[in-house]
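Morning F.,

Quick status update on the modeling queue. The single chain you submitted on Monday has been processed. Sequence for confirmation:
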Amino acid sequence: MKPYTLEDHLKHSLKNPKFRKAWEESEAEYQVSRALIAARLSKKISQRELAKKANTTQAVISRLESMSANPSIGLLQKVAAALDLRLKIQLV
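Structure tokens below.
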């Protein structure tokens, strides 16, 4: 018997219109969180170190990474600059 994976569960769940709507509404936050985590890990710095460079707190970085925040563009620019990156917003 084939194991039931997270991808299998997601594929099945996306057939539910309410779930699909919620999934699509959270896509932007997920992409920001994923990009932030990847950038921080590639720089090999902790949340605390990133927070210090961005002149914010570790709790703010944690909330950004866990999708528990509704950040301003200014905050995202500040965090991007602390990672020696720039913020790029794209409508598709």
